[in-house]
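Case study 2.
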Amino acid sequence: MPPAIRTLLIANALGFAVEVAVGPAFVDAFALWIDPAAPLAGLLSAPWQLVTYSFLHAGFAHLALNLFGLWMFGADVERVWGAPRVLAAYFAAVVTGGLTQLAAASLAGAGGPVIGASAGLFGLLLVFALLFPQRTVVLLFPPIPLPARTFVFAYAALELVLGVTGTAAGVAHFAHLGGLLGGWLVYHYRGRFARRGR
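Prediction:
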């Protein structure tokens, strides 16, 4: 297991363990809280929430799915990119995911807490698809094999539809889309800097 992904898996598991042990007070302090009446108020008073929300989860199944995805996609990305770039992509995706969800929820007049590592996972998922576009990914439901690039584009389209229509309430669809943006930004500028260095 590459070191950065191993660290992220452990950190998310520990975050969930503390969340369960401490209870709602921990979520109150570290989730990303959105108040549509004052969308920036919570972020200005507790800016750490833009990162710490990603280490909280709404139950064991939520945690397990995110950890499985981090291992499945992030490990191969780290073997190509190395730990620093993987961590940069992950946390860039967490931040852009949180900001995107904050903007979308504020425009829709919705509020409440945002939690989960999904934005970071989506960022690494996009990088995986860009690095390995023809690698086969098999969906869970239904079990259909797809090239990684097709899988990610289809998943992004589905997230956009679900987010715009308000389907699957309780899921931060725009955080997922924002996570894709963060992964793309790190991939794009990493490539540009690499070319300049030649």
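The chain is about 70% helix and 5% strand.
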